[in-house]
Amino acid sequence: MLKDLFRRKKQPSTGTAATQSSQEIESQPPSPLKADSSPADTSTHISASSESPPKEGWFKRLTKSLSKTKKNLVSQIQELLRVSRKIDEDLMEEIEEILIQADVGVNTTMLLMDNVRETVEERGLQDSTDLEPVIREEIQKVLGEPDRPLQIEGTDAPYIILVLGVNGVGKTTTIGKLCYRFQSEGKSILVAAADTFRAAAADQLQIWCERTNVDLIRGNEGADPASVVFDAVQAAKSRQVEVLIIDTAGRLHTKKPLMDELAKIGKVISREIPEAPHEVLLVIDGTTGQNAIMQAQIFNQAVAVTGVAVTKLDGTAKGGIVIAIRQEIGVPVKLIGIGEQLDDLRDFVAQDFVAALFDGETDDSMLEEI
Ligand SMILES: Nc1nc2c(ncn2[C@@H]2O[C@H](COP(=O)(O)OP(=O)(O)OP(=O)(O)O)[C@@H](O)[C@H]2O)c(=O)[nH]1
Ligand SMILES: [Mg+2]
Q1: Which of 128, 177, 218, 360 has its CA 20 to 30 Å from the CA of residue 237?
Q2: H or E element at residue 106
Q3: What are phi and psi of 274, to 5 degrees?
Q4: Residue closest to 370 by CA, chosen among 102, 79, 72
């Protein structure tokens, strides 16, 4: 009966992705990752890296993606501090205003600025032109480093990643990018479509799985998502895959039954593998700013979130949210998405993020492109 819920994609004659050796996966030509131009694809707007023009370095791309946030946040602070003036409360309040309107959030801004005030006093700083490195240091401290970066080594297989987030934040796209990443690391992967609410959700996921040549477990439309997850965990165990990634419905976080459903999924997983899910990844749309904090708090009540992926940082001026997340939700940002290509997802490295904001060059042509 449960078997009826399995609707695996047709396997290539070379065998399943789940059972391929790492060499086979590594030696695959990039062609399966190519964006094909079938009409069904338009929903994901992906262009594979193999089709893209030669890539700029990651840091340059990060800088470019953060241009609007830099302009809205750091450039304004730099402008304010550039002309020499006395460091006083008026100046501190002006900085606070910039931080708050750039979506750093009130609580995080207050904490950050209290630390800045302390450092100013300790170092006996007097002039505004000395303040920028202090603000930079304090932002860096608030961001910290991930407690437990997304590393699957050292866990008994399968390593389970449960992906949550409201509609349209980029869950499915992030899963596609994760498949690409794990596959290029030679890992065996299985994906589960626990969004049974609408058939199109599983179809979109299937497109990504076909591109990355990864198996998908899906249920019929309207099936109990927890039962799809149960089947997927069983399949992951019996096939001995290293990573199982579970996509969930873009549920409205205000609807309690949907949150209950999510909690049930969490329970089903940990009943099968007590230490799982190893990662509960909340996907946040970087363009939504402070709203994302409220969403995160509600999701956290259903299943304890362990990491955040902030997507769409390219083209938003609200990237200040990244600074607030750890402080406001108590969970580190682990991944950032800066575009729609397969390799536009990276581990979040606080130092790079801060360097891109403070050191990165901004020119207006970059801003127009975004
Ligand atoms: N520019 C940009 N677009 C992104 C990024 N991540 C996702 N998107 C786009 O955001 C849109 C929604 O992405 P999905 O992955 O379908 O979002 P979802 O959370 O799965 O949506 P639902 O399943 O409807 O809840 C798509 O058009 C993606 O191409 C990113 O990092 N940058
Ligand atoms: Mg989706």
Answers
A1: 177
A2: helix 106-123
A3: -55, -35
A4: 72
Q: How far is the CA of 193 from the centre of ligand 2 (A)?
A: 9
300-328 residue pLDDT tens: 888 999 999 999 999 899 999 999 998 99
Q: Which pair of structure tokens corresponds to residue 356?
A: 């891109």
58-68 b/e (C-beta count within 10 Å ≥ 16 → b): eeebbbbbbbb
Residue 285 Cβ < 6 Å to ligand 1: no
d(CA 303, CA 368): 40
Q: What's the start-to-end Cα distance of the chain, in Å? A: 50
Pairing of strands 333-337, 307-311: parallel
Residues 350, 340: Cα–Cα separation, whole Å: 22
Is 65:314 a contact under the CB 8 Å cutoff? yes
Global pTM reads: 0.83
Task: Please tell me if the CB atom of residue 176 comes closer than 6 angstroms to any atom of ligand 1.
Answer: no
Does ligand 1 come within 6 angstroms of the Cβ of 235?
Answer: no
CA 36, CA 189: separation in Å to the nearest integer? 22
Q: How far is Cα 266 from Cα 306, in angstroms, rounded to an integer?
A: 13
Cα-Cα-Cα-Cα dihedral sign, residues 233, 234, 235, 236: positive
Could you tell me which of 148, 136, 168 has the C-alpha nearest to residue 292? Answer: 168
DSSP count for the chain of H helices, then E strands: 15, 8
Helix or strand (DSSP H, E) at 177: helix 171-184
From 44, 64, 173, mutation site for ligand 1 pocket: most ligand atoms within 8 A of C-beta: 173
pLDDT in tens, 182-223: 999 999 999 999 988 888 889 999 999 999 999 999 988 888
